[in-house]
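Late entry, zinc ion complex.
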Amino acid sequence: MNAMRDHIVEIADGIHVRVPSQERLHRILERAAAEAEDKPLPPNQCPACLAKKCPVSAEGSGLYDCVECGAIFGECYLARSYEIVKPRMTTDAVPPDRECYFDFTCLGSDQKITHRHGWYDPRTGLITQIG
Ligand SMILES: [Zn+2]
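Prediction complete; structure with ligand written out below:
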């Protein structure tokens, strides 16, 4: 299991919460500090694990694939984002180490949805957790 991955903890019968790994928590705090100083992340820095200099994704030129956690993120048209991560939740019990983070800034002026993010199953393209 990847050290950057979150832990899934059952806090009550059937109720699971996602707890960031210590490494990710550290990066989240780093990012919060950078944002407080009004220094936005570079476009190729992973918003999930904050790995830097991620390569452009084969899925599209405005998108990046995280080398550490497998996240996909960046800018693309809403329709393109739906091709990668479908606008539907999975009904499968997806193991946490198979989930990947997604974070799309959706382009196009005639739409209400400008940002989609959460976790999905790359094998099916279905959402496992929104936000
Ligand atoms: Zn990452």
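The longest strand covers residues 100-107. Will revisit in the morning.
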